[in-house]
Design a protein that fits this description.
Elements (H helix, E strand, L loop, with lengths): L7 H8 L4 H8 L4 H13 L4 H8 L4 H11 L8 H10 L3 H10 L5 H11 L4 H14 L5 H8 L8 H10 L2 H11 L4 H13 L5 H11 L4 H11 L9 H11 L10
């Protein structure tokens, strides 16, 4: 009480050593700092659902935030309705934390919420939404993640969109094959680079097409060299050497290129 909220994180490990009865009393304490101290231990220690819901309904963000954080790794199905309310109408970090806490529960409703959150004019919430989509790894999101990938590496959503496609496995590969065969140069480039890093033969035609349009694209040339097992980068005419190589190899088996 003397030092207030700043000491709460340092004291949280001690809360885990308290008895269930003491923790329950702490969770009902008049001081928000005391309730915050109890929150993580109650969630992670399988405290009763009623006590967890009471913490989520607490008027102080100081209490709600650690409760939500703990629920990200210790989900509570009984809290789903309250989590949705916070994710839709909370403020700032509470919305993001509620969405993160919902992801382990899964379900179409969580998937829909992540997609809705992505459409809002809030960059941090959008980042969390794409993180949620990546974690959920639902094949229905492949096209959406692909469209986010085509925004390029300068986009704040790019890294999580890429991770989401990776987590989708073959479904993510097929989405990037579609992108690599698209008409737009940006989509084609991002799809081809993704496929090249996955060692997929489908990347080569798109990389060659991109190289023909922009011979100075060092990243495309590098990925094609790695994929082909050939050092095109040090050739006098890299694009010519690449096309000559392509004329001599089978096109469907990247392993045969080594």
């Amino acid at each position: 009480e003397r030092f207030g909220a700043p000491v709460v994180p340092a004291l949280r490990p001690l809360a885990h050593a308290l008895s269930p009865a003491t923790l329950a009393d702490l969770g009902r304490d008049a001081r928000p700092e005391a309730r915050a101290l109890a929150a993580e231990a109650l969630v992670e220690g399988s405290g009763p659902d009623g006590e967890i819901l009471a913490l989520l309904l607490d008027p102080s963000p100081l209490v709600v935030e650690p409760t939500l954080s703990a629920m990200g790794t210790h989900p509570r199905e009984a809290a789903r309705v309250r989590l949705f309310a916070l994710a839709r109408s909370g403020h700032g970090e509470l919305r993001r934390a509620a969405l993160r806490a919902l992801v382990p529960l899964g379900g179409k409703d969580v998937l829909d919420l992540a997609q809705e959150s992505l459409g809002e004019n809030d960059e941090e919430l959008s980042r969390t939404a794409v993180w949620a989509l990546a974690e959920l790894a639902d094949p229905r999101c492949a096209t959406l993640l692909g469209s986010l990938l085509t925004r390029g590496s300068a986009s704040p959503l790019y890294a999580e969109a890429r991770r989401g496609l990776q987590r989708l496995g073959e479904v993510g590969i097929l989405e990037c094959v579609r992108l690599a065969r698209a008409n737009g140069a940006r989509a084609q480039r991002e799809g081809a680079l993704f496929l090249a890093e996955a060692g997929r033969a489908e990347a080569a035609p798109a990389l060659l097409s991109l190289l023909a349009e922009a011979p100075g694209d060092a990243r495309v040339l590098f990925e094609l060299s790695v994929l082909a097992g050939q050092d095109f980068q040090h050739e006098e005419h890299p694009e010519t050497a690449a096309f000559e190589w392509w004329d001599l190899v089978v096109h469907e088996d990247a392993l045969a290129w080594f």
